[in-house]
Amino acid sequence: MENARDLDQEACYRAVLTRDARFDGRFFGCVKTTGIYCRPVCPARTPKRENMVFVASAAAAEEAGFRACLRCRPETAPDMGAWRGTSNTVSRALALIEAGALDSGAGGGDVDSLAGRLGVGERHLRRLFRQHLGAAPVSVAQTRRVLLAKALIHQTDLSMAQVALASGFGSVRRFNETFQALYGRPPSTLRRRGEKAHAGGVRLSLPYRPPYDWEAMLAALAARGDTVGDRKWSRVLTPGLDGAGGSVFVEPAEAGRVSVCVEVDDLKALPGVLARVRRVFDLSADPEAIARDLSTDPALKPLVAARPGLRLPGTWIDDGAEPPNDRLEDATLAARAESWRPWRAYGALHLAAAGMTGADLMETNDAKRAA
User: Which of 25, 138, 180, 197 is deepest in the core (most CB within 10 A)?
Assistant: First the structure.
């Protein structure tokens, strides 16, 4: 799924027929007869092949005029991480959009200013988004806002006005108009009746692709000085850095989900906080793609097989031009790690988890050549 135009429509339909969870979040099926788009794992009856077209992202589906299925809820699908690394510019742009770069009223701007922050032209950025996601940057930003709003409606007891602010909409009026246009109904009708209210902040569960080595991640975060206790990570939020004061708590939930509780004095800061949580816990990683690519190296293959759930601990603030998954600190690995791209940092992580360094790898290679 590295290119939106390369989607094999027949293969996508076969995945839908079997409800193959491996493809959840990697594409979405649009049903022409109903105007609805679904995840591959949607439990609803599978439409006929001639009535379906498949797109690479939820943004592409919504841009084409389809609305999200209320049964399989596309906002609960894992991030589409299979192509990440094929375009560093798109990866960086998505991180900025997720943090609110195109949200009105949240310090956001337009696509031209986003392109400027990335050091590329606006037309080139739009072309890259079409190539990899099948949608324009503004469509991706709107879909992110809408899907976050749907998650807040389903999972919290926030008022509709609070949901509008917390999901990055500039106003309640725009929030209502967007939902009316997409779903033909006001957002309040999407709330399930009788849901239990949550006290003590906004509580959400965020998706990721299993497996996930939680013990290794929490140990790494604790080792670098983060606050970790009883399998729960926490951080104090500050207005200067996070746009609001408060705190955030993260802990593992059921398989494929992480529980996040955010307490803030300004709900407009929520999208940025959630984006940073995703980065710290590497929730957009695609273990299958990483294992597939790294396993082509004979030295890494057994290490990856032994620890398939390793994730890269991310920083809370990351302004680096190079994506975290491709960063490499061990200079002795530079030549060998070229074949690991775009997952060089994961390759180094697996070596470290096995107690090996670049020097050890070189010694092993020297011994094999001598033999």
Answer: 25
